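Exercise: predict the fold of this chain.
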Amino acid sequence: MSDVKRFLARKNIVFSAKRYGIDALGAMAQGLFCSLLIGTILKTLGQQFGWAFLTDIGSYAMSVSGPAMAVAIGYALKADPMVLFSLAAVGWAANAEGGAGGPLAVLIIAIIAAECGKAVSKETKVDIIVTPAVTIFIGVALAKLIAPPIGTAAASFGILIDEATKLQPFWMGIAVSVLVGIALTLPISSAAICSVLGLTGLAGGAAVAGCCAQMVGFAVMSFKENKWGGLISQGIGTSMLQMPNIIKNPRVWIAPIVTSAITGPVATCLFHLQMNGAPINSGMGTCGFCGQIGVWTGWLAPSEAAVARGAFAITPTAVDWIGLILISFVLPAILAPLINTVCRKLGWVKDGDLAL
């Protein structure tokens, strides 16, 4: 047993929830951002302005989302170069075989293939053959065997959330908004979760609302402590910066969470806000304004995941734009500080508790 532990330590193979559930998942979201998300934005811009060259660039970027995710996961797992490069083929196969639930298939299969590749890397004199062969064979074989059911399960769960939100927009608006918003601030990837579930439509709109409530809420209510730098880093960057403060005093989280519980049903019931762009946008909030860009691209050219659930292109009205602006920026900027003021008067939050 000790020999196995020494071998795993030497190969930097660590079986842990953090390594796979935080590091790998977060890296996968970055891979998606650098392929599918940015590609969707460029393609939509190209289509709207009639720039065929830009449309082609976006299409090429979108087509390599599987390899981008797998390579990003391998990087997070500290895979050797030969393993890392081989994961491109694994990611392509897993994403293709996984269908609508491809991102989840890529996550699981890329982790297994990467760890197996790391185990054999530099163990033989013909490493240039053995390492890529093992990594690609195991990864692609798993893609053929288990990616379809994984993809179907993930897509089915996403459809269940979408249908439940349509049937119960108020309660599901609260649930999706609060849970995805919390995931955004925690050291896990809400973007990857939304992508895995293919979260679009009303559920995607509620997710956008929850993420914006966290990011804009924390940014505005902590302005006294963090000034403009904090406003930008949290409002356009990530509310995850507040995690150390949340650990010290969990009550600082009350205002953004309550805000998300309000803006979620406002999005689903009042404005019927749908996020029909790439599902990853649902979990991005105001990070680089990706949530808002996702809503916009979904209006003009819905993603394949959204089209599969009945979405179609629309011409946004003034009410659509007002709803998006209120839910994304105005309501969180007003509600979170007001609720936090109540928390301060109750003595739950004090000066300096939100300082970065």
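Check your answer against the key: The chain has two domains: 2-155, 168-345.
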